[in-house]
Design goal:
The protein has two domains: 116 residues, Urease, subunit C, domain 1, CATH 2.30.40; 291 residues, Metal-dependent hydrolases (TIM Barrel, Alpha-Beta Barrel). 34% of the residues lie in helices and 20% in strands. Helix 5 links the parallel strand 11 and strand 12. Helix 4 runs parallel beside helix 5, helix 8 runs antiparallel to helix 9 and helix 10 packs across helix 11. The chain binds zinc ion. Zinc ion binds next to strand 6.
């Protein structure tokens, strides 16, 4: 029996019946298919055929002409923090109520789906918020991306435990760590996240030493893998990355100094481990906002102290170099932005990956096929092929030529979730036309 991902159990209902997309250019997760007028047949939310005009005719299918636009797998972001972007009231204005945050989380998730992102992996948020949002989506309150979560991040007793609210479960010693793993699964985790090293986002943590001993890491990985869950490792310094690789953790997050250790990159290739480069996180910490620039060109508006901003700039250089070397060495690179639930965060990460040296096709693959593999969902998601779930994105234009299209809301023509049209410019235009028609009728 396959692993029971809470994220899959919480899926919205699939569209019923057959949908035939015609006149499509298809990016299948790896390459653009040769057919200029491709067809794609979906039945009950699953892709059942992809091909050219000679695709067997399908009786009773609803036919949708996508007008030569690009059909591709919905985008997948492997490293986000489900976090509300809360406005800060001015002095004297009513302070934010606690429960208001959930509405802002919903807003972020809805808009993220609107931008063509159909799967998110939450790698740490405030207690219960990701699970609550997921439950609300499952029960029909709103549509958002599929949501995998780690529940709480497992950290040793460390300074970070004082910085990030309820995001960490501090654990020490092998037995406590096993218990911590079990607790996350109890709370609906899809995978286990561990701080293999400290974090560069707080001034008290040193990203160099490992956070745990070998015995502790071994207990964590054993417990997670024994129960069928993948392990996602926050790892910065060499010792932590080496430990994560040695213990068989499945995805290495950040790993920005790996360019200095070709031996470790080689081990990742052999072990099939994934690198999630998280360039957007460095941009944010360096105060580079949403611009796609080299650190030297940036207009800094940092929100962090000088020491951490300096470190973020250094990390952006190191991290981009590592991304290029990892890709060249054959390490599987998966997209992860390390931002909050920012609707355009995934597309900006993709554009940054290209700006810093990947080809557009490599970056698109990192955001689809390889990302699904990193999550353990390659059988369900990430490519446009027979048998995959129809979580799809129809883009106006060719993102393999111009990936920045994906940052533009008006170019996200249609988003399908299990074959159901759930967001996109096409739907909004349709409604707009309806109102226009009514208005002109009344004018007669
Ligand atoms: Zn992160």
């Amino acid at each position: 029996m396959p692993h029971r991902f809470p994220a899959l159990l919480a899926a919205p209902p699939a569209a019923k019946g057959r949908l035939l997309l015609v006149n499509a250019r298809v990016f299948d997760g790896e390459r653009l298919l040769p057919e200029a007028h491709g067809r794609l047949l979906i039945e009950d939310g699953v892709i059942i055929d992809v091909g050219s005009d000679d695709l067997s005719p399908s009786e009773g299918a609803l036919v949708l002409d996508v007008g030569g636009r690009t059909v591709m797998p919905g985008l997948i972001n492997c490293h986000v923090h489900v976090w509300p972007r809360l406005p800060t009231p001015l002095r004297g204005e009513e302070p934010m109520l606690e429960g208001t945050a959930a509405h802002f989380i919903q807003d972020g998730l809805r808009e993220t789906l609107r931008m063509g992102v159909t799967t998110l992996r939450d790698v740490g948020s405030q207690e219960g918020q990701a699970q609550e949002a997921r439950q609300a989506m499952r029960r029909g309150a709103f549509r958002g991306p599929r949501l995998l979560t780690c529940a709480k991040i497992i950290s040793s007793t460390a300074p970070g435990g004082r910085f990030y609210g309820t995001m960490y479960r501090e654990a020490d010693g092998p037995d406590d760590i096993r218990r911590a793993v079990r607790e996350q699964i109890r709370w609906g985790a899809d995978f286990v996240k561990v701080m293999a090293t400290g974090a560069r986002s707080n001034e008290l943590e040193d990203p160099e030493p490992t956070q745990f001993t070998d015995a502790e890491f071994a207990a964590l990985v054993d417990e997670a893998h024994r129960l069928g869950y993948k392990v996602c490792a926050h790892a910065e310094g060499h010792d932590g990355v080496a430990a994560a690789i040695r213990h068989g953790m499945d995805t290495i997050e950040h790993g920005m100094y790996l360019n200095q250790r070709e031996d470790l990159l080689e081990k990742m290739v052999q072990g099939g481990q994934f690198l999630v480069p998280t360039l957007t996180g460095y941009y944010f910490m360096a105060g580079l906002g949403e611009d796609v620039v080299d650190p030297a060109d940036g207009v800094p508006a940092p929100q962090m102290g000088a020491m951490l901003v300096e470190l973020a700039r250094h990390n952006l250089e190191e991290g981009t170099k590592t991304m290029r070397m990892a890709q060249a060495a054959g390490v599987k690179v998966a997209l992860g932005s390390d931002g909050h639930t920012e609707p355009k965060g995934t597309a900006f990460e993709l554009v940054r990956m290209v700006h810093h040296g990947l080809s557009s096709t490599e970056a698109l693959t990192a955001a689809t096929k390889t990302a699904a593999e990193a999550l353990g969902l390659a059988a369900e998601l990430g490519t446009v092929e027979r048998g995959k779930l129809a979580d799809l994105l129809v883009v106006d234009g060719d993102p393999a030529v111009d990936p920045a299209l994906l940052t533009r809301r008006e170019r996200i023509w249609l988003v399908l979730q299990l074959g159901a049209p759930v967001a996109g410019q096409a739907l909004e235009q349709e409604v707009g036309r309806l109102f226009e028609a009514k208005a002109s009728e009344e004018a007669l």
